[in-house]
Model the fold of this input.
Amino acid sequence: MRLADLQAPSGARKGKRRVGRGHGSGRMKTAGRGTKGQKARTGGSVPSWFEGGQLRLSRRLPFIKGFNNLFKHDYAVVNVGQLQVFEPSTQVNAEALVGSGILKQSAAKGLIKILGDGDLDRSLHVRAHKFSAGARAKIEGAGGTVEEIVIPAPARTKRAKKPGAPT
Done:
C-alpha cells in the first residue's frame, strides 16, 4: 500500500449542500434558511458579538482604568539580610540563590534585584540585575563586591528617533 492509495471509506465525506437550485434539488423556496427574519435575507448575517439588541458586553462591563506597560521589568526581590546564609567570599548569583532556597527556580530565570533590608557582616561577590543604593552600600561596607548584570535594550527600529534629533 502506498500513500497515494489511501482514500476515505464510503460515507465518510459528505458532498456540499447545493441550495437554491430549483424543485428537483429538494431545497427549493427558502433553501434551508427558514421563513423570514434577518438571517433569511441576502447579506443578512449578524456579527458574532451582536446580542440581539440587548446592552452589549463591552457596555455592561465597568470601565477598566490604566494600561499594561509592555516594557515593564518584573524583578525577583532578595534582601541583603537573606544573604547571611552564604559563607564569606562566596560568589552569589542566581544559581547560588536557588541552591540556598532563597529563590525558586522559576524566579531565578528572570531578573533579580537586591534590596537593603537587613544586615550583612561578611564579604560576598554578588551578581544581580539591579541593586538599591542601601544594598550596594551594605555589601561594599562589609568588604564585598557588587556586579550588575546589564539588561539588553530592545532593538531600535527604523521609526525610532535618532539620538540628538530635535523633537
Remarks:
- The mean pLDDT is 89.
- The longest helix spans residues 133-141.
- The domain at 75-148 is CATH 3.100.10.10 (Ribosomal Protein L15; Chain: K; domain 2).
- The radius of gyration is 33 Å.
